[in-house]
Amino acid sequence: MVKAICTIGPASEGPDILSSLILSGMDIARINFSHATEKQFIRIQKHIQLINKTHSKRVKILADLQGPRMRVGTLPKKGLLLKEGKTLWFSTDPSDTKAIHIDDPYLHEDVEIGHPMHLSNGEIELEILEKEGSRFKAVVTVGGILYSRKGVNLPDTNLTTTGLTPKDKKDIAFVVKHDVDMIAMSFVKDDADMQALRSLVNNPRIQLVAKIERKHALQNLDEIIDTSDILMVARGDLGIEIPIEDLPLVQKDIIKRATQRGKPSIVATQMLMSMINHTHPTRAEVSDIANAVLDGAWGLMLSDETAFGKYPLRTLEYLTKTADKAEGYLKK
User: Fold this and answer.
1) Which helix (H) or strand (E) holds 89?
2) Which residues are catalytic?
3) What's the CA gap between 56 and 231, in Å, rounded?
4) Tag placement on the chain: N or C end, fewer CB within 10 Å?
5) What is the mean pLDDT of residues 102-114?
6) Cα–Cα–Cα angle for 252, 212, 125, nearest 5°?
7) Rounded Cα gap, residues 155 and 120, in angstroms
8) Which domains does the chain have, with CATH numbers?
9) No. of helices (H) and no. of strands (E), the chain
10) pLDDT at residue 285, rounded to an integer
11) H or E segment at 295?
């Protein structure tokens, strides 16, 4: 059976909705430490443990680490309009008020002239023009409005800042102490990242999930597979780091190679995105779910759909119904 993974958030963390999700087929509850607090984790864990005991279920908890996510600093509330052809400065120095701050202290050393840079989930595209101390200049090639704390991606840049952040290490110590079942590492670059996580966790009972969301990870995929317990095709950032038209084939390749090496894989991001606000999925979404199952995915993950969406339970039901149909087809 394909595992149904639900991200728990404001729309789904209450005991009643958690109980409904578990009874409707949720196998793994994901707690995203980009947003969740320790108090939230403990509260959600207690609810799940009680429901598991009451209904003889075995729902596991996955702690998803934030990782070294790069973001721009604070901007005007209405955002900053970046028109195509506009040039602007970025800086890793927080005291530089004449440039847009990016919170990676080594980025000015890592970037190279001609490299692409994507902002705000890939909606805005730029190209690096020049470097000067802790600053670098870029030209906008695809415009848009940039808001505070939006994400930064540099797919061709070999970043110094990788691996586990101080926050990650603190969160690992906390969830290991509280008997978490699984830990997912964000922005994995190579097998050394997974080895560092395994050394820190130091508990063979806890399954370690490598999130494949960086272009550089694809170059080290077999080594990452061998040093992890589960692979996750994290299509959000991965679809920014590589041409989006390549994403379906890369997804198939990751699942295939993981399966060949005896490791399960999870497909994540925008599985049923339309159901955040709507009661029914699109035809493309149900086809996407079915194809992931046909490719050999071990698990399917819902993110904002169950964390913030209006219809978390209904969304899970569509996920499981569609996955079950696809599994039935495989058994013919």
Assistant:
1) strand 87-91
2) 30, 71, 211, 269
3) 28
4) C
5) 97
6) 100
7) 14
8) 3-68+162-330 (3.20.20.60), 80-153 (2.40.33.10)
9) 12, 16
10) 99
11) helix 283-295
